[in-house]
Amino acid sequence: MIENRRRFSKQEYNERALKTRKAMFDKGIELLIVTDPSNINWLTGYDAWSFYVHQCVVIGTDNTLFWFGRVIDAAGATMTTDLCAENIIEYPDNYVQSEQEHPMNYLAKILTDKGLNKCKIGLEKDNYYFSARAAESLYHDLPNAKFVDANSLVNWQRAVKSNQELIYMQRAGEIVEKIYERVINVAHPGIRKNELIAEILHAGALGTAEHFGDYPAIVPLMGVGEESTACHLTWDGNTIPDNSGICMELAGVHARYHSPCSRTLYFGQPTQKYLDMEKMVLESINITLEMFRPGMTCGEVADVFFDFLKKQGFDKANRVGYPIGLSYPPDWGERTMSLRRSDTTVLEEGMCFHFMPGIWLDKWGFEITESVIVTPDGAKCLSNVPRKLLVIE
Amino acid sequence: MIENRRRFSKQEYNERALKTRKAMFDKGIELLIVTDPSNINWLTGYDAWSFYVHQCVVIGTDNTLFWFGRVIDAAGATMTTDLCAENIIEYPDNYVQSEQEHPMNYLAKILTDKGLNKCKIGLEKDNYYFSARAAESLYHDLPNAKFVDANSLVNWQRAVKSNQELIYMQRAGEIVEKIYERVINVAHPGIRKNELIAEILHAGALGTAEHFGDYPAIVPLMGVGEESTACHLTWDGNTIPDNSGICMELAGVHARYHSPCSRTLYFGQPTQKYLDMEKMVLESINITLEMFRPGMTCGEVADVFFDFLKKQGFDKANRVGYPIGLSYPPDWGERTMSLRRSDTTVLEEGMCFHFMPGIWLDKWGFEITESVIVTPDGAKCLSNVPRKLLVIE
Q: Which pLDDT belongs to residue B1?
């Protein structure tokens, strides 16, 4: 039972560490303090809901690679990683949420003991789990180190997925198909929002007959009618009336790998504006999907989409997608590239994106989105959820 | 539908702002940048899954009180708060997850325009959603401001709950009762972990006939057998065999208010060590619950518990509880006091705690916990889940 908590071969973890060390070396970074839980997992396999306390993986261009976390989480590190006991380093519980002592003070002592207190240290300075105080504790306690911002260094290494990662992504895609099957089966005018969400959560954890559903890094988002203009509202206990449009942003998840998929539902006979919007969005998807080929840039993909939209008289203020993969709350994006006109990143085979042509207007919204793999033939969709306005009569 | 997204009266929000301003005034803080989503909600009602991008509420000891967030989230701020349009300030989408520009650069411009660039500014320096780069962007762009760490200033104002908050907490307690009813009904040897989790998530969102279940700030945690020694593992697709002990940490949630409750299940006839542990933990709960009275300190509560445990030959390395209430991922604790020997905070009527006598040994773990309100008669439990080892035969 413990053995199969390891999701990838030792060799794959070794390759990831090597790739990371090479990127560090190219930037002259000798030591990297990795605090993003997704990066921690990608480098070591560590998987637990312990990111509400300070923790990190420290990797050096020498042989350094250790997990550092709270005393009661060391057992989880033993169970989910291949690190040996001396590379699972715990800090005492009195450092937890204390105003007196910060876990990064403790880490500074460890680094000093190891003679790693004078090197060039990379920090993930814009990560959720690396607070201002964490940084300032290190600056204070390691006055001879040189600190640089290496915010998305590891995230970038994750952009192109391995074969095993793509298998997990596709399983996640099968799971989101199951979720929408459930939605179509149970949704009806008069259902309470939280009842529908309960079914979505149930189907999401159940997964497929072969593969368990994991928790999504973002809870199911649902906007009914005018609420759908606000993209990130969650549910309450109100009923969904007849003749409502409902935007849903959901994801299937397996072993922390995500396949997001948004759809719009309509209860009753859709009004013409919904049908017109459906037609336009589907066309925008068709012409954009074939752009997801190696050699294209994020900006070129975005241009095709935004130019088409503009011709139809629509202006969309936000990006039209982002890379996806392994993730933890609060975000299933990888926070590297964005599908916006100004992004010059070149696509490579095996990158994965949530392509997100959501349209949010003053009084209503509309979303049909796809998670895709970049291939020489254009986008390969991770799931096969009916790509249309889902009408429930 | 939009109106009832407001969870508290305007008067209650006014009182909260006043309480916060008073605490700021006492510390000489003129302006506070509030980034903790729970604090943002408590001050304004703002409720959306948008904390994966930078956002804040800015409150001053003058009349300043505004929401600052991403352009596409302003609609959500309009729907869930009483702020007028001029106090909902959005930043453009090109600031989102960009290496070139940080949302806090944009906020600095706003503060400068408002003449708020020379005051003493409090920051929540150890909050998940206030990164090192966020702080350094402000330091750079507001050279004439004086910055101080006001990490848990708002959190402390939330410690004593209002009547309406206690109503929500008790509804959350009723929801966790429903969750455990479901667990007891469906659990059986051979069930897959994710199947059991699917039922927990379903029951949690369904809530009670009257009150919807909201999403918990921590997903259901489950450790089977030896895995229960690692406190924060989540589920996978393995089956739970007969003769297993299973630790579960779950919460009922209503309108973002949490009532956590842990229980240990046993599939089959429990071994003597589980029965002995049950007896000891129940006794520890009985003698400790009556300590949750106004005037006692956190340390005095912890002493009673830890002294009892020591007499039984057990040493517990971590704190035995923490305050609870309104929360967002990744933590349902309030991150102020802790139930540990060294904490001298005096309890007040209406404070709420998750009292957490979890025992994690080398090869197994055991948890029976209660969420409680501090009252003159000692702890009042928020839920009435059977307080025992839950044996499933």
A: 35
Question: How many structural domains comprise chain B?
Answer: 2
> Please, which residues 262-301 of chain B have a Cβ atom closer than 8 Å to chain A?
none
Nearest by Cα to B359 from B285, B289, B293, B251: B285
Asked if A176 contacts A383 with a C-beta cutoff of 8 angstroms, the reply is yes
CB B232 within 8 A of CB A76: yes
**Residue B206: which of A1, A99, A195 has the nearest Cβ?**
A195
Put simply, the chain A residues between 127 and 166 with a CB less than 8 A from any chain B CB are 127-136, 149, 151-152
CA nearest to B130, candidates B154, B156, B100, B94: B154
Round to whole Å and give the CA distance between B387 and A256: 33
Surface of B (58-87) touching A: CB under 8 A = 71-73, 75-76, 78-80
Residues of B in contact with A48 (CB under 8 A): 230, 232-234
The CATH number that applies at residue B205 is 3.90.230.10
Cα B114 to Cα B110: distance, rounded to the nearest angstrom? 6
Q: Give mean pLDDT, residues B311-315.
A: 91
Say which residues have a Cβ less than 8 Å from residue A118's Cβ, sequence separation at least 6.
A144, A145
Cα–chain center distance at B218: 8
Question: Across-strand partners of B267?
Answer: B244, B392
Domain limits for position A66: 3-157
Same domain, A134 and A12: yes
A273-296: pLDDT as tens digits? 999 999 999 999 999 999 999 999
Residues A153 and A246 in one domain: no
The pTM of the full predicted model, rounded to 2 decimals, is: 0.97
Domain CATH number, residue B75: 3.40.350.10
Tell me whether residues A232 and B202 touch, CB distance under 8 A. no
Query: Per residue in A157-176, pLDDT tens?
Result: 999 999 999 999 999 999 99
Per-residue pLDDT for A1 more than 60?
no
Distance set, CA A101 to CA A91, A155, B122, B318, B330 (Å): 11, 30, 20, 15, 21
The model's pLDDT over A376-393, given as tens digits with 9 standing for 90+, comes to: 999 999 999 999 999 998
Amino acid at A81: T
pLDDT for the residue numbered B363:
87
